[in-house]
Amino acid sequence: MTRSRQFSAFIVTAAIAMVLATTTTVECFSMHMSAAGKTAVVAGATGYIGKWVVQEANRQGYNTIALVRDKSKVESKQGQAQFGKYFEGAEVVECDVCDPEQLTKTMKEIAEKNGSVDGLISCLASRSGIKKDAFAIDYQATKNFLDAGIEVKAKHFVLLSAFCVKNPWLQFQKAKLKFEADLQNQNELSWTSCRPTAFMKSLSGQYDVIIQGAPFVMFGDGEVTRCNPIAESELAQYLVDSITDESRKNKIINLGGPDEPLTMKKQGEMLFKAVGKEPNFFYAPLWLFDVIIDSLQWVADTFQSEKFENAAELGRIGKYYAVEDMLTTDPSEKFGKITLQDHYNRIAVEGQEYDPYTTMFAKAPASE
Fold first, then answer.
1. Secretion signal: which residues (predicted)?
2. pLDDT, tens digit, for every residue of 183-215?
């Protein structure tokens, strides 16, 4: 190729690159402009998905309000390390969502300050999943948030629900379904309920022990259940986009990631591949769940013990995820481009953030 042709090829390549970059910039600018001047309020902002939603809403240009129970914990040194990059650009407002009067007062102040509330996104979820916590948070606190939104004439309510409510035999699933029923039965504001299959981090909980040489633990033969998890960043994008997406209004939507069905054994193989180790599995029999659950429930019933009742419920939660698919195969219910292997490959290089509710078997890092 002559120098002139090389130069021409360079010019053409550069021009194409400029067009693509300009197109991307215009799209991003348009996205930000569409949300400019609009307000989004996120409840459960310090939760695992909540902080991603705060970051995404702010990225899209919303006046983003992050509701937190204790503002001092967010502003502390440890809180800044945990939430700083997610909450940057957002307004952090202290409010107890379990207190309906305080929540309504806070929402009125937000609406008065910003002119209106365009989107409410609830990422509220009980930490334990036991009956008392589930109905206090997954139902009542979420209902308080909805009622406060109705009071200030908010425009749209987005609920982070869960795919597993499709077959409910756990208390937190029943609480979520009870709220979904209330959401559908009100006519004051439009809504979207999103039921994600699984978070990717919930499937990398054994990462920390795998790199230390421990086996990957799975139940049965590792082929009992399948799933297609969705990346946290892409789930957050879907939730925030739902504020204005007319096609999602007043709908319950199952949502999974781009992967084909992945068994637990396949997940383990992918994780070992990412960290460069030979697969090493430990197979735990499923009947262990029944023995443990039945024993705990017998003690709970015999001695009327709430403590053992809660322990039995935790056992049922563990069994549920060991035997139930978290999978959607409908192309319309799959979203995003990040695969589970992408996620594993990334944490193999960067490590993963510790979270006591998604990082199994690992210990919290020593506080500085």
1. 1-21
2. 999 999 999 999 999 999 999 999 999 999 999
